[in-house]
Amino acid sequence: MYRKYLTPIALGMTLATISDCTLAEDSDHEVIIIQSTKQDVPLGHVDNSVSVKTGEELEKAGIFAVKDLEKVFPGLVIQTRGNRTYANTTIRGMSSPDYYSPTVSIYVDGILQDSAFLTQQLQNVEQVELLRGPQGTLYGGNAQGGIISIITKKATDQAKASAGVTYSNQSRQLNGSAAIALSDSTYADLVIRSLTDEGNITHVPTNTEKANETKELSGVARLHFIAEDSPLSMTLSVSADDLDSNEEWYLTQTEFDNKKTSQTIPELKRQVNTYSVNIGYDLGNVTLTSITAYQNRDVDRQFIGGDWEEDQNTLSQELLVNTRFNESLSALFGGYFESRQLDVGTESGAKNTIKSDTYAMFGQTTYGVTDTLDLTLGLRASHLSTSSDFDGNPLWMIAGYNEEKSESMLSPKVAIGWQVNEDSRVFASLTSGYRPGGFSPVPRSYGDKDGYDAEKSLNGELGWRTSLVENTLVVSGALYWIETKDIQLYTGVPGSQILNNLGEAKSHGLELELAFYPTTDLTLTLGGTQGKSTFESGNAGLQGNTLPYAPDTTAIAGIEYFLPQSLLDGEVSLITNARYTSSLFFDERNTSSQSGYTLVDFAVNYAFNDKLSFRLFSNNLTDVEYKTYSFSMGGPALSNYGTDREVGLNVKMEW
Question: Which one of 90, 395, 525, 615 is separated from 408 by 20 to 30 angstroms, measured CA to CA?
Fold first, then answer.
């Protein structure tokens, strides 16, 4: 597991939180430090439902992209809608019909990722953290379901490099990384990854095989300044991702079965560039952090009906102050600014420019009421102003408009944690979240000029973590309920729908996770969620319907076993992961659905030494057929389908 070296203030906060108790993880496993709380807290002392996977664990499980994280995080559902640019992420039943405004946000090293980049490749990962439930106090809007925080590895004073190649019946992948020390205090690292999903659909009119091929090239370059004798640290980062895809096919069942279609070949190009500066200044009892980021995303989509173009630019600035007043009281204060401009060109040539500015101040303080009881209070005040300059759409007979609106939000939080003993903790929390109001990027009616208001959620949670049998069994769980008001939904006749606010929704359920280490050679993991997410009153005839992309049940199970053998030099391990997803609906009216299904992945890992390893794998071992999106316009259902059985080999070398 990942061990993070704590700054003096973080160490003080940790010791104060733990008091006389010892860390539950430290007898057989290293301490896992959660950074998505913005205060570096040991996993066993986070008063929120959280799951974490290290980069090594993800690599062993064959997880190389965000879209595959649902295989290892119970309750997480990630489905693409047409192509990987338009994805839906669901946690605790919280999903979004508007892919421009998700209910789950993704952060990479504290930087919010564009909504069209939620299924990105995982690059140089140290660990991935999943915070469940509304996170409005620390993260603001678009975090009603939770957040996924990706933390990358930092360069060290040791030069190292790696290269890997993966080849299967479905895809090809090349990746490489290098890290060097430029001086005693300056380090650099570089990561490059190339991916080709070959496709399996034949385009009949042109006799084009593999007409749904997708290619993606991505890379990250960073420069770190970390001096032992200086309180100042700095990281400069530049990343780029280039996607060229023909994957957006909406196929009938017959077309999918025959792997043939006469539909027009779709094309999509997406480019995402991100530039950031992260500056830290450690004053001992006070730590200052500044995160400045600029992200540009261009999408050019050629689809039935014409060309669709999108260009979004986002500039953000966050300032954080972490401080410790005494042994019992610590606090986090922050300010956040974001300026975003989205330019959308529709198939008819109509253009819409949406500008938004967000200002926020937030704070969170933790007080040790006793040696074993902690109280956390937090509050975020946000102000959002947005405008839409739409030049009209003659094809749809919609006049142009130029409208503005603004709103202010308060996002409170209260949590209490009780350290029952050195191995067990119980916590309860009340948190809030929201999806910002605004204007529809693609107006389908003149009524869209009125825009829509924020959607607001309140979450109650009772959770626990415990280590048993001399830390060989780790169990965690949570009971939760979420009430959502002013739901943002599309209403009206299909094709001319308006995005506006309707009524309420409720979600409640149980989450469980278990890790069992019966021997040093065997690891068993289990996880599951059982809940219900429904529309309530005020939803235009939807009351009682299940929220889209919200299965009642999810379950995961994993086994890692190191084979006792002397035939080969090195280590041989077997890894199996299975995931069950119960039936879910793709629309609010519950007319399009996917029945429950189970996917099984299997791999044999052979580590010849610490420099060379091989991984023979099969994803979707039993070749289950399932849909990731489906709809009907009066005729046969048109659907996107999941990946068929994949069999391949990965080879990795490290220096």
Answer: 90
Alpha carbon of 450 to those of 36, 379, 424, 453: distances in Å?
A: 36, 30, 51, 10
Structure-token match 């506006």, residue found: 500
Which pLDDT value is given to residue 463?
98
Q: Which CATH superfamily hosts domain 8-654?
A: TonB-dependent receptor, beta-barrel domain (2.40.170.20)
Contact 382, 360 (CB under 8 A): yes
Q: CA 398 to CA 392: how far, in whole Å? A: 6
552's tokens? 């009642």
Angle, CA 91 vertex, CA 96 and CA 132 arms, to 5°: 130
**268 vs 272: CA distance, rounded Å:** 13
**Collapsed DSSP state (helix, strand, coil) of residue 16:** helix
pLDDT over 50 (residue 116): yes
Instruction: Tell me which amino acid residue 309 is.
Output: E
Q: CA-CA-CA-CA torsion for 587, 589, 591, 592, nearest 10 degrees?
A: 10
Q: How far apart are CA 49 and CA 634, in angstroms?
A: 42
SS (H, E, C) 300-368: EEEECCEEEEEEEEEEEEEEEEEEECCCCEEEEEEEEEEEEEEEEECCCCCEEEEEEEEEEEEEEEEEE
Torsion of CA 438, 440, 441, 445, to 10 degrees: -150
pLDDT digits (tens, 9 = 90+) for 263-322: 999 999 999 999 999 999 999 899 999 999 999 999 999 887 678 899 999 999 999 999
Burial class (CB in 10 A: 0-12, 13-18, 19+), 71: buried
> Residue 118's Cα: distance from chain center in Å?
6
Q: Give the whole-angstrom CA distance, residue 293 versus residue 374.
A: 34
Distance between CA 507 and CA 525 in Å, rounded?
26
